[in-house]
Amino acid sequence: MEVEKAKKTYQKPTIVRLQGQLFDKHGSSGNFPLREKIDGVSVTELVQKYGSPLFIFSEATIRKTYKQTKEAFTSRYPDVQFAWSYKTNYLKAICAIYHQEGAIAEVVSHFEYQKARALGIAGEQIIFNGPYKGMEALRQAAAEKAMIHLDNFDEIADLEKVADELGHTVCVALRLNMDTGIQPHWSRFGFNLDNGSALAAVKRINSNNKLKIVGLHSHIGTFMLDPNAYNIQTQKMSRFLVEIEENFGCNIEYIDIGGGFPSKNRLKGIYQPPEVVIPAIDDFAEAIVSGLLQNLGPDRRPKLYIESGRHLIDESGYLITSVVGQKSMPDGCRSYVVDAGVNLLFTHTWYDLVVESGIPTKGLPEPAILNGPLCMNIDIIRDSIMLPRLQKGTPLVISPVGAYNVTQWMQFIQYRPAILLAGENGTVDIIREAEDLTDIERREKLPDRLAL
Ligand SMILES: Cc1ncc(COP(=O)(O)O)c(C=O)c1O
């Protein structure tokens, strides 16, 4: 028996052109990168203690990125307030870190609104965006004096009804969309500035005393690579502010420029590395503030809200997964199966995620595919990657995965894994337990007549 176990499985030999140790255009030799620790905590020990796969977030990186980003804006403008974009990552522990750092909440549904309230955030500290909020949510948000950002004329009518019920005027902001020179235009949300729809919304709201416009909002896109688009955005928004203050007696207390700054992820199809392609956050801050100041008088400094999501969190998140099997494909390419699939990695669609080994590896890199454990052909985490021969059990670290994955992940075929937080002093906390069958079946009902 013992001898049987020690036997290696036979693998049919194939001839593959090895590219390892050749220098690519950037001078790197293609050696497989190693990440044995995350914030000082050993990857191997994490897997031993908490299992595989695992998400882990770095609290130090979250706090550092937040502080740096905030500094880029507060060093240029006197009144800046960040609002954490819940949909980017609404784990309680993650939101709590941003709130501790001073961010308020930015939510886009009643569910997210309730999540922020349950965490202890007052309605007045919540920005409520989104194309559909629902009457119940509008009632709660208006009664709790949340910052409601209107998206369309039907919503204006709905909120007017709520104002009637409450018996007082409700303060609102208008969500605007506009041409900022980038394609595609994000024209789906809010009122268009260029075709007069935004002005029509102001007239409509001003036709009675039910709602009062106190803010202007827009979010021009996500993973924006051109700071100049924000310059156009804030020029247009500040021009509109002046126009409606002069012509309609509005008093605009704040401008909210949304989010959209890129993380250091590598977009598929973009050849150069993120360090070359992604502008510095100071470039975005400069473009935003200079555009804003262009049309405002010297004493006019409305509060500037920023709803950055992806840029703030992406690099703090890692997914640890382990090699569970391998085979040689008919074309000679090696396929590795790991225990985390694309159902956990929504953003793999846009990015070539970085894959590193949690333990030292040996051997020349060869062309490989990284497949997840799902019995689905689409379960490909990286379809073209150079990997040295990896043994079963090798832990791999996939990053940056902090933004949008643990909100857009789905339970499919496999359970969703635990999520950990690496604290600044070497502590590791579970911030979401791994799922089990009870979680998945909790809301299912089996009619008696079908009971087995
Ligand atoms: C209204 C609004 N604000 C903020 C964000 C956060 O965007 P990002 O993660 O690109 O910074 C989004 C995302 O789509 C959004 O729709």
Tag the structure with descriptive keywords.
globular, alpha/beta, TIM Barrel, 2 domains, nine-stranded mixed β-sheet, 22% strand, eight-stranded parallel β-barrel, binds pyridoxal-5'-phosphate, Lyase, Ornithine Decarboxylase, Chain A, domain 1, 452 residues
Q: How do you describe this structure in short?
A:
Helices cover 30% and strands 22% of the residues. It has 14 helices and 20 strands. Helix 3 runs parallel beside helix 4.
Question: What is the fold's blueprint, element by element?
Answer:
Layout lengths: L1 H5 L30 E2 L2 E2 H8 L3 E5 H16 L5 E6 L6 H10 L2 E4 L2 H9 L7 E3 L6 H9 L3 E4 L2 H14 L3 E8 L13 E2 L4 H10 L4 E7 L9 H22 L5 E3 L17 H4 L3 H15 L7 E4 L3 H4 L3 E12 L5 E5 L15 E4 L8 E6 L8 E8 L7 E5 L5 H4 L9 E5 L5 E5 L4 H5 L11
Parallel strand pairs: 3-19, 4-5, 4-12, 5-6, 6-7, 7-8, 8-9, 8-10, 10-11, 11-12, 14-16
Antiparallel strand pairs: 1-2, 3-13, 13-14, 13-18, 15-18, 16-17, 19-20
The structure holds pyridoxal-5'-phosphate (PLP).
